[in-house]
Amino acid sequence: MPEASPQATARTETVTRTLLVALFVSLVCSSFVASAAIVLKPRQVENAIAEMRRNILQVAGLWAPDADLDELFESIEPRVVELETGAYVEGIDPEAYDPVEASKDPARSIEIPSELDVAKVGRRAKHALVYLVLRDGELSKIILPISGYGLWSTLHGFLALEADANTVADITFYEHGETPGLGDFIVKPAWRELWRGKRAFDDSGSLALSVVKGRVADDDPLADYRVDGVSGATLTGNGVTNIIQYWLGEHGYGPFLAKLQAGAGS
Ligand SMILES: Cc1cc2nc3c(=O)[nH]c(=O)nc-3n(C[C@H](O)[C@H](O)[C@H](O)COP(=O)(O)O)c2cc1C
Questions:
Q1: What digits encode the pLDDT tens for the residues 183-205?
Q2: What domain range includes position 87?
């Protein structure tokens, strides 16, 4: 076999060295990225919890930018509710309970029957995490997590009801993918303002709250239960109506709210 020339041997050595250096650099970089992800994970979890608490405080009307978040949150009591019965559950720690995780676990969640799934939620956890706003030890508001499909995306938010479990105090959507300038009217303060004082259930106990197409007429006999939509973005408004219909309905928080309305929610 003919011997390799000194030039060919040098070329092979250069290629090998280049590959080794590239391998070393990529190993160092990937271990750096992996360690950063591990080190930053607790901080990310902390930030996510703080962000959720801010959203809850805002919809509860208690948010003050300069105040201590944890201190503000002391007036809010998270409770786990069994949705089917509407009863509080004592055996699950609200601080540790994650309804999103539970909704992925077949043992702890249920498939929503298609005829009831107007908000296209798919599956939901059997237990919900609700937030009670307490003033001087008395229930002052109830904060309910809500979610469902708009036009392009799943909307995630909170609905705040007054202690009568009927009058709306506020609504917020902290996550959505609707179009800026169209469907994103759902996060505008002026639109949120329209919800304050609306009622969810009529005198016969039927769920009547909805977002209409266009404006609610001044002489609309159902004006107390209706919120203006936005022209050109009716479909996102319809999505919000569906979310309200599902979550305040019999398959959602209905049994829990009925208990509160009957004064049996303590
Ligand atoms: C690019 C694009 C983005 C749109 N985004 C939204 C949206 O986020 N929400 C929405 O309700 N309608 C959106 N629309 C309009 C809807 O397709 C639909 O026409 C509208 O919701 C109907 O409302 P209207 O009956 O009041 O006109 C969008 C339309 C286009 C072309």
A1: 999 999 999 999 999 999 999 99
A2: 75-261
| Position 265 pLDDT exceeds 60 | no
Q: At residue 89, does pLDDT exceed 80?
A: yes
Q: How many domains are there within the chain?
A: 2
Query: Which residue has a Cα nearest atom 2 of ligand 1?
Result: 179
- For ligand 1, the distance from its centroid to the CA atom of residue 243, given in whole angstroms, is 18
Q: pLDDT value at position 45?
A: 85
Q: Does the C-beta of 187 come closer than 6 Å to ligand 1?
A: no
Of 14, 62, 12, whose CA–CA distance to 170 is shortest?
62
Query: How far apart, in Å, are the Cα atoms of 218 and each of 111, 156, 224, 226?
Result: 40, 30, 10, 11
Same structural domain, 105 and 50: no
Q: How many angstroms is it from 191 CA to the middle of ligand 1?
A: 17
Is the domain of 30 the same as that of 119? no
Q: Specify whether the CB–CB gap between 142 and 131 falls below 8 A.
A: yes
What is the C-alpha end-to-end distance of the chain, expressed in Å?
A: 92
Query: Could you tell me if 103 and 195 lie in one domain?
Result: yes
Do 151 and 37 have their domain in common?
Answer: no
Considering the domain architecture, whether residues 171 and 51 belong to the same structural domain is answered as no
Over range 166-172, report the average pLDDT.
Answer: 98
Average pLDDT for 94-100: 96
Task: Return d(Cα 125, Cα 136) in angstroms, integer.
Answer: 32
Q: Is 151 in the pocket of ligand 1 (CB under 6 A)?
A: yes
Of 68, 83, 109, the residue that ends a domain is 68
**Mean pLDDT rounded to a whole number for the chain:** 94
Residue 163 has pLDDT above 80, yes or no: yes
